[in-house]
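Quick check before the chapter quiz. The format below is the same one you will see on the exam, so make sure you can read both the input and the output lines.
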Amino acid sequence: MIEILKADLTLPVHADATVKLMDAYASDAMGGGQGLSDYVKANLSAELLKRESIHVVLAFVDDEPAGLVIAIEGFSTFACKPLLNIHDLIVVSSYRRKGISQLLLQKVEQIALDLGCCKLTLEVLEGNQVAQSAYKAFGFGGYELNPQMGKALFWEKKLNELG
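Here is the expected output.
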């Protein structure tokens, strides 16, 4: 049985599943290929719990953690409305091809609608064709304001590295 739910990180089973799934994601080639640090494992759930603008959605298959979305509220200045950014999405390899990513995305979309968001956003690696296919099937596409200016690029500048 597949269960998709908004996590309650005060529950140890949800907090533990979040860390376990994020560690699986980080260990995967698409997540950088290196598991979470001990610091992150020890603090992630508590830090997420402090932030009301973060929404965690979990997928369980027969009570086993199978998938996760961490979405963070943002704000669209052009629409003057909130948006919800899918910061992390993982389905454990043994549970892939069962429609779990689409169920997770449906739950996140419902959360966004409940919050009055104008859109969902996410970033995806160029080489992750499987994820791109899943996102396209759900209705995502490249972001552009003016086709003549091209699609938006997602950049970063790291400020520091934690353990």
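If your answer matched, good. Residues 12-27 form the longest helix (16 residues).
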